[in-house]
Amino acid sequence: KMLRSAAPLLLRAAPRFPAHFSASLRFFPLHRRCSRGSVDGKREIARRNSNRSIASSSVGMASNNSPDAAPPTHSSTVTLSSGETIQISGAPTLSPSEFRNAIDSALFKQWLKNMQGSSGILTKEQMSLKQVHIQGVDMFGRGVGFLKFKADVFDNETGKKVPGIVFSRGQSVAVLIILESGGEDYVVLTEQVRVPVGRLILELPAGMLDDDGNDIVGTAIREVEEETGISLHVADMVNLTAFLDPSTGCRIFPSPGGCDEEISLFLYRGHVKQETITALHGKEMGLRDHGELIKVHVAPYRTLWHMTVDAKALAAIALYEMAQREGLLASSSG
């Protein structure tokens, strides 16, 4: 809803693309910590991508569909907008506070909201939600970072259960930074260790939103600063996903078969001297005392589509190219 209301504004007010990138961009040294009032280091990491090393507490992922699994020891109910009451259970490995944190979390509430929204699968009464089993929780400081649960959803016509295992991590942002120098367009990438896939990945600067999910553009700007040392301005940011049809929610879902993550993709374009490109490439960033090891890469934009496996980058390329073709982007020449 927020992005739908912001989309006309973004289309009416084309971003300013400064003649000299350095006029609107500052670099920060490696040891600098982003100042965010009362938000401490752990909260900083809480917004970051799933594989970053953080101070978290992980609890068991025992599923109740295993013949050897112990019966759930936690139980609660939630009432849907239809008035139907749904049973919520928790794995025995969860503590009472973890179970309560899970069902009270913004992640779980947003998932229920999506299920019952205008395009939700429960809205047209073709599907029914019978129960939810909370299997695991990852706490980021005092808040819930990730959830894993199993939802028993049935097709009302056939009576068959549909796949319902959910890894919940909520909203994220990523930024496509294109820098023109000497007649060549370059893109700024980060190289990070990605434990879930067991390899280093070249990807766009990105990160997770806080629980309230209200400051999407601000989060995008902060992530760029933390991961690359580049400071951008709100007026220069273009929300590429705002160009999508409003019926889509103006976000992309990279893995909807198992994860609820929804991503807003932004664009920044600017002009720099070649010395800036050289200074950026190979720069080491990240909160290293928290195990966050990031190396900045700068590559020609024309080669990006076949040098990265990052779905965020590939989706951003597609949206950027189509927006250019449709004349939705202002010229970056002046």
TrEMBL record:
GO biological process, one term: nucleoside phosphate metabolic process
Keyword Ribonucleoprotein carried by entry: no
InterPro entries: NUDIX_hydrolase-like_dom_sf, NUDIX_hydrolase_dom
Entry annotated with the keyword Ion transport: no
Extent of Polar residues compositional bias: 59-79
Signal peptide: none
One function term, GO molecular function aspect: ADP-ribose pyrophosphohydrolase activity
Keywords of the record: Hydrolase
Residue ranges of every copy of the Nudix hydrolase domain listed in the record: 168-321
Cofactor: Mg(2+)
Pfam families per UniProt: NUDIX
Start and end residues of each stretch annotated as Disordered: 49-79
Official protein name in the record: Nudix hydrolase 14, chloroplastic
Organism: Anthurium amnicola
Gene: NUDT14_0
